[in-house]
Amino acid sequence: MTLKTILAAAVATTVIASPAMAQDKSDWPDNFTVGTASQGGTYFAYGSGWANYMSEVLGISGGAEITGGPMQNMALVHTGDLKFGLTTMGPARESMEGNSPLAPGMKMDNVCAMFPMYQTPFSITTLSSSGIDSISDIPDGATIGFGPAGSTSDTYFPRMMETLGVDFERRNGSWSDLGTQLQDGLIDVIAFAAGIPIPAVSQLEVQTDVNIIGMTDAQIETITEKFPVSQFTIPASTYQSLEKPSQVVSMWNFAIANCDVPDSMVYEMVKATMENNDKMVSIHKAATTSVPENYDKNNVLPWHPGAARWFNENGYEIPEDKIHN
């Protein structure tokens, strides 16, 4: 697979900061780029803010690149076209095993975990005027937007909907574009998989009345038995439109690095991220769970040696056989 193929839909946006610290960076790259996802989604907001923060900490220029999301980020980081990215555990496992639809048969095993980010809840948004108040209300043939092609939502949500007996027409696009289409009546439902609060949902509920739909206990049981997800509660305070907590399912996200990135660089990045959660939360509220205690949620990717060094120094044991060598 060529870089041109992988990057066909990508557009770069760069966030640059002035040097903030002096140290030996002789083996570091001159700059770095973080693979995120589409605008209007949490990955882009989180990744852009983190890239800017790392630029300040490391004293080198860094940027965030719009991509197709976790699957594409795994491919780009594996090949070294991007040094860093964000991914979800489900797509990470499929990519590691050579089952990525972007590069069938390619085992993307040069991708290493850096630190835990947050859980990605799978939730549904409709216009209140649609009369759709639950998954069972979705009419046969409804058009559902599943986010960018190859994203976590696009990879898993259609399968979940089929498992729950929903008959639908599939639509892909950026979260912001799908939000506009929902508001204009061009699609019926958006099936979001993104950290909360999702920027596109927050924008939608300011402009119109929306229903944010959860899952029943029976639906959650059915989905958790078949997919690598767990039950998750979206607090009522997350959105103006929620009157009570919403029960859904979720999947963990981790920041990733090409395993060949210098250990000292990754160590400094992980140190700054894990030791300054207030700063991370100021970037995005989803970062409340970007804390070292959640390191054990990675059961898929090998750890980058630089990341493992920080965790082990701070009492979070990562065994040697879980570290890339």
TrEMBL record:
The residue stretches assigned to a coiled coil in this entry are: none
Report keywords, A-Z.
Answer: Signal
Q: Does Secreted count among this protein's keywords?
A: no
Q: Where is the signal peptide?
A: 1-22
UniProt cross-references to CDD domains, sorted A to Z? PBP2_TAXI_TRAP_like_2 (cd13570)
Query: What Pfam families does this protein map onto?
Result: NMT1_3 (PF16868)
NCBIfam families linked to this entry: TRAP_TAXI (TIGR02122)
Q: Any idea what this protein is called?
A: TRAP transporter solute receptor, TAXI family
The organism of origin for this protein: Marinobacter persicus
